[in-house]
Amino acid sequence: MPNLADLIEEFILRKLSDHGGGIVLLQRNDLADELACAPSQISYVLSTRFTSERGFYVESRRGSGGFIRIARIPAGHVLQFEVRRQEPGPARPEDVVEIIGRLRDNGMVSAREAVLLTGVFEIFGQALDERQKIEVLRSLLGRLMNL
């Protein structure tokens, strides 16, 4: 059974999909009432699951006239963000898997390509130092942006 955060995320994603996948405007309290949860739980889901790293832009205003505006960032912009974000430093395997997952979720790579890319990084990543891993990842993202 999914937890509450999963249900909130699913509900918001469905709203985005109903609005053509672009932008949705919500009221935090109305959303909390509809999902029978506290407004703080809505805030938690927004801050952890609707981040720019995952391809979303969230604008939030609190108070009686407050609102939540959620927009899906176009896949090409997500790639540009990732290319800039990947500075030399530790490239943890879970970071690579997360980035490849976002590429799959945004339709930049197929599920099959995502599995292949993940496997390649698992196999060859052991032979690369941290700086080389980042360079390979940046090169991959740069090539995808030019497709």
In short:
This protein is mostly helical. The protein contains seven helices and three strands; from the N terminus they run H-E-H-H-E-E-H-H-H-H.
In words, what does this structure look like?
Helices cover 60% and strands 11% of the residues. By secondary structure, the protein is mainly α. It has two domains: 69 residues, Transcriptional regulator CtsR, winged HTH domain (Phenylalanyl-tRNA Synthetase, Chain B, domain 1), CATH 3.30.56; 71 residues, no CATH class. It has a three-stranded antiparallel sheet. The longest helix has 16 residues. It comes from Acetonema longum DSM 6540. This is Transcriptional regulator CtsR.
Structural descriptors:
mainly alpha; 2 domains; single chain; three-stranded antiparallel sheet; 147 residues; Phenylalanyl-tRNA Synthetase, Chain B, domain 1
Give the arrangement of secondary structure elements.
Blueprint: H1 4-18, E1 23-26, H2 28-35, H3 39-49, E2 56-61, E3 67-72, H4 75-85, H5 93-105, H6 111-124, H7 130-145
Antiparallel strand pairs: 1-3, 2-3
Helix pairs in contact: 1-3, 2-3, 4-7, 5-6
Structural class by helix and strand composition: mainly alpha
Helix content estimate:
55-70%
Q: How would you classify the quaternary structure?
A: single chain
Strand ordering within the main sheet: 1-3-2
Shape: elongated
Taken as a percent bin, the fraction of beta residues is: 5-15%
* Number of H/I helices: 7
Mean pLDDT: 79
Tally of discrete structural domains? 2
* N-to-C CA distance: 39 Å
- Write the H/E string, N to C: HEHHEEHHHH
Major beta sheet, specifics? 3 strands, antiparallel
Domain CtsR N-terminal HTH: 3-73
Protein name: Transcriptional regulator CtsR
Pfam families: CtsR (PF05848)
InterPro entries: CtsR_N, CtsR_N_sf
